[in-house]
Amino acid sequence: MITARINGITVKVPVGTTILEAAKRVQIKIPTLCAHPDLPARASCGICIVKAKGINKMLRACCTPIEKDMDIITHDAEIVEIRRTVIELILSKHPNECLTCTRNHTCELQQLAADFGILRESFPQIEPKVPYDDSTGAIAVDRRKCILCGRCVDVCQVMQNVWALSFLDRGIDARVAPAGEITLEESPCIRCGQCSAHCPTGAIVEHDDTPKVWAALQNPELHCVVQIAPAVRVAIGDILGYPPGTNLTRKLYAAFRRLGFDSVFDTNFGADVTIVEEGTEFVHRFTKAPEQLPLITSCCPAWVDFMEKYHHDVVPHFSSCKSPHQIVGALAKTFYAKKRRHDPENIFVVSIMPCTAKKYEITRSKEMYASGYKDVDIVITTRELARMIKQSGIDFNSLVDEDADSILGEYTGAATIFGVTGGVMEAALRTAYYAITGGKLANIEFENVRGFDGVKEGAIPIHGKTVKVAVAHGIGNVEYVLNRVVEAKRKGEEPPYHFIEVMACPGGCIGGGGQPYGVTNQIRAARAAGLYSDDRDCAIRYSHENPSLKALYDEYIGKPLGERAHHLFHTGYTTYSEYKR
Amino acid sequence: MSKQTIFLLRDTSLTQDNTRDFQILFLKIARDLGVEDSIQAVRASDLGIYDKGYVVKDLNNKITYANIQETDIEKFLKATIKGEGSVDEFKYTADKCQLRIVLRNCGLIDPENIEEYMAQQGYCALAKALTEMTPETVIDEMKKSGLRGRGGAGFPTWMKWSFARNSLDETRFVVCNADEGDPGAYMDRSILEGDPHAVVEGMILAGFAIGAQRGFFYIRAEYPLAIKRIETAIEQAYERGLLGNDILGSGFNFDLEIRLGAGAFVCGEETALIESIEGKRGTPRPRPPFPADKGLWNHPTIINNVETLATVAQIINRGGEWLAAIGTEKSKGTKVFAITGKVKNSGLVEIPMGMTLGEVVFGIAGGVLGGRKLMAVQTGGPSGGVIPLKLIDTKVSYEHLAEVGSIMGSGGLIVMDEDDCMVDIPRFYLRFCVEESCGKCAPCRIGGFQMLKILDRIAEGKGVEADLQQLQRIAKGMQKASLCALGQTAPNPVLSTMKYFPEEYRQHVEDKKCRAGKCTKMVQYTIDQTHCKKCKLCVVNCPVGAISGSREAGYVVDQVKCIKCGTCYEVCKFKAIVRK
Amino acid sequence: MKKLNKEDILAASKTNPYTGDYVKVGISTCGVAAGAQDTLNVFEEETKRLGIKVDIRRCGCIGMCYAEPLVEVSAAGLPKVTYGKVDKNVALEIIQEHLAHGRLVDDYIFDMPMNR
């Protein structure tokens, strides 16, 4: 521990604490712009500068460790004036379009300008002509608004290991774009949206699909159904004025009906189906076809895209099961349509997802049209839903809780934890255990696949054998796991894992690219706690025990992995190169 | 033939050159005295002495005589050839002259021949260090010498080395920063081309001192000859066991390799250089941690300038106190300068610290070209400032140059006369910094660009009073908030010229005039009625019809319409168009 | 090649490779840019053709860059001089006057005081 002084106040912190962190301990908020708790300090913006007595250069608080007996001044006339100059310089290369920008009210640059009371444009505007890139249909890039903080590059290169974005050129012409100046759609981008979740301004945002949803809701011919992912329910509260992690499921059901949806389903139902299908798949491979192990989960579309581009060698290991919301979509236009006598052509399925990659998933292959129609018509993110709720005049906080339509809306505790890293694994293990042993687990909560370590490994004893599992989140952590698998294969050894879960976003879907801004590990933990709590509150915590699910299989599907199941619930994979050009 | 006495003759007057006449007279008197076969009297081009009348140098005995008048020649020849009488009163020793320590071998040896290097005590320092000294005593010798980094920052070299030495991390690196990027600076290039082994030996000694196993030369790709000479030197060193394993049987292993730059001035900055060697985009890292603590691949790395490394071997050979005896209290040793600009003898000079700028420019470099009046000198390249004529007696040292608002820099020294515009010069340097900015941090990337736009407008005659305050404001922001020294020092030329030549800025902004005539957009063309012959050639040729008038009233240029193309100036046969 | 040891280095430091007459041309970038390669070629070819026995050597930047190409001549019993601005014609003059007849050439000598 070392002692130092900040603004005259003595502070005692462990060695290596940055000045920024140390200042927080004494209730001082040094302004920052490019710093983000998820990423190592890049120190580019120059806003967090502070003075230290005896050092004639100003220091950057975000990256400089505070040293013994340092005497720091965080705010004085000179420092504030320089910060203002830097903000105004940044504003001079930023379009003055706050009122018509997606980030109006959530933009970090806007907040800084407001906090500093910038009332004038002191410098002439620099207005380069740059193209607008909405080529992926999931993530839209408006380079004019980019302040070159570098968060998206660090996220895409280091955190996600995708390398779709890099810095090009230098000086005033420096910009963030895919290498070779191709569009995002032609680049290795997997549309995970982590760039948009970390961007401080409106430079990278989710592609806005709300107009299409409004149009559908206003169309009297269409029967609109909605489904909501588990991760959305514990995150949207951030925007609607609730503490992080608050579970707003039943208020959301009510809100959907107010918005005009005809039926309210829950993606968690699809998650239960996924477990039944994938669980069966796993048990088959584990007991009868071990050469096909490990089995790798496939419900994350960014991960699927990554595999199809970068890791063709593990294609045979992927579960053929679709993601939960695609399953619900397919069922909506077949089973549900039949049962409630709606013409599937007029059914419009909207998925509310924490994820931008899902926007791409709904058209990725012909299996996404298994019902004969587009199984899911549109995906909107948590952020877009929040805008719709605000726009619609619903007094959300005063809504009375409602239920979903149980036919495709009832869910178990195993389903709801899909939204957090390790959740799919846990849910699958619960059902797999029953399938192999016929019995129930003593402890249903698998602590060793919970938490936010990049790679979590576990060994679960089932019926005399040991099931070795690995859970990775954040694509940057996948290399380690896959390398071990590929290495073992090359040497002809037993695979190091039997079952692998991968989520592209750190924390799993709760940290998804379409979730409310400002996520930190603390907030991820709160959202995870919300879902685990939901699990505990469920009466039924095994996917295969879901009554509506059992009815579905009895009446319509037949056996898991059977012909109809295969047609509606399973998909194939194509491999292609990282770059389209 | 018996040994002749060789005399070099030169008229060193600043305003005329009568060497030829002097020589004719000299030879006539020699004939009269009957000694013409015993001498050669040769006209020299330059003897490095200025404003001392006629100078005669006895080349055999290396004695120089100055201020010899025509009437002294007879006495002179009688004394020197016939031994009658003495001419000691004419003897002249240049007290302020170059002291070539770093450049001692440049121009002396063949840089591609290691034997010639070794004949000049080459690698003796390495032998001494590896067999008689320890790394700690080597660093101690560096401390005694007081050597400071010659790349511009002036950080004490021994201190950098001892940080790396004392690190807990056992993998360490030495890097030679040969990315010399300052416009007009080529000291490092000449050292690398002229005495590559000195730098190689310095690297090996540095490696020994800090306990490194590998060293890198980071040479800018625009120096192909330097790259070739260093490659050859490294090869020769490996062949003779001076690099590689178990050097000189001491158990010390050291490997050297070359990495090339790729056209980025910013990669001369330490942390950006490290990023470049690591194969990444060359942008600076935040410091701390400093490279001596966490550098290449997060290992302790010392990065030294070429000139610094070229001094190391001599410090070890001759002892640290030897270097400390040269220079000022806080700046020891010598510095190589590349003197360019409006100066008579442009080139590389090496001078002891403490010599004044005036002594360098007028004593060694021959003064301003054409005998014109000195306006200012600029040191430190795009990071430095100007020193006006009134401060020309400033001593060359880190501390003295900083006091007057400039920096030592890497050694560029530009001489400017009255034809240079004190708004245009900083504009040139600022444009350089804006082009070379890596773009990582907002203050430099946007601030530099905005400052340049303001200067451009001022140079075009569109400046306003508020612009000068804006320049100061942005400059302050850049100096304090930029991530690296490129951004922090880019405003220096502007601030320095504003401080010493505020009148020039005022003229540009308020009067819309450029005194030196360099800012072409503000040049005014007017008609001198006394010379004008009313031929109307200018009227006819003006592309915008800006000249009008009559034979009676005379012709006038409409300054608003005038686009300053200069056509009228060129076509007028009577020199009636005045350009200023 | 034999790897050196300390004794070898000390012995080498006492050698003097500069015996005999020589013409030394500055052949670093500043010289080459001013045409020193041509100058060097003239010296090599002409001295060979005329049968003048002199070592043609190279060196780095002598420092008086404004006077490149620079050539240092130590020959014909005369003291060492440095000629500057030595283009092909001046080179021929140096060969014919200085090397062949021991007469220094007017107007091209640069002799600057410096300590090494």
What can you see in these coordinates?
The complex is a heterotrimer of chains A (581), B (580) and C (116). Chain A is an alpha/beta fold and 581 residues long. Helix content of chain A is 35%, strand content 14%. Chain A has helices spanning 19-25, 77-92, 108-115, 151-159, 194-198, 210-218, 230-233, 237-240, 249-259, 267-288, 301-310, 324-340, 357-361, 382-391, 413-416, 423-437, 478-491, 521-537, 547-557, 563-569; strands spanning 2-6, 9-13, 49-52, 55-60, 71-73, 132-133, 139-142, 166-168, 175-177, 204-206, 223-228, 263-266, 295-296, 347-353, 378-381, 455-462, 465-473, 499-503. A 5-stranded mixed sheet of chain A has the order 2-1-5-3-4, covered by helices on one side. In chain A, strands 12-11-14-15 form a 4-stranded parallel sheet, sandwiched between helices. Chain A has a 4-stranded mixed sheet with strand order 13-18-17-16, sandwiched between helices. In chain A, a hairpin with a 6-residue loop joins strand 8 (166-168) and strand 9 (175-177). In chain A, helix 10 (267-288) crosses helix 12 (324-340). The longest helix of chain A has 22 residues, at 267-288. Chain A starts with a strand and ends in a 12-residue tail after the last helix. The relative contact order of chain A is 0.12. With 580 residues, chain B is an alpha/beta fold. A 5-stranded mixed sheet of chain B has the order 11-10-14-12-13. A 4-stranded mixed sheet of chain B has the order 2-1-3-4, covered by helices on one side. Chain B has a 4-stranded parallel sheet with strand order 8-7-6-9, sandwiched between helices. In chain B, helix 15 (424-436) packs antiparallel against helix 16. The longest helix of chain B has 18 residues, at 442-459. The radius of gyration of chain B is 29 Å and the shape is flat. Chain B starts with a strand and ends with a strand. Chain C is α+β, with helices and mostly antiparallel strands and 116 residues long. Chain C has a single domain, classed as 3-Layer(aba) Sandwich (Glutaredoxin), CATH 3.40.30. In chain C, 37% of the residues lie in helices and 18% in strands. Chain C has helices spanning 6-13, 29-34, 36-50, 88-101; strands at 22-26, 55-59, 71-74, 81-83, 109-110, 114-115. In chain C, strands 2-1-3-4 form a 4-stranded mixed sheet, covered by helices on one side. In chain C, helix 3 (36-50) packs parallel to helix 4 (88-101). The longest helix of chain C has 15 residues, at 36-50. The chains are: A alpha/beta (581), B alpha/beta (580), C alpha+beta (116). Strand 5 of chain B pairs parallel with strand 6 of chain C, so a sheet runs across the interface.
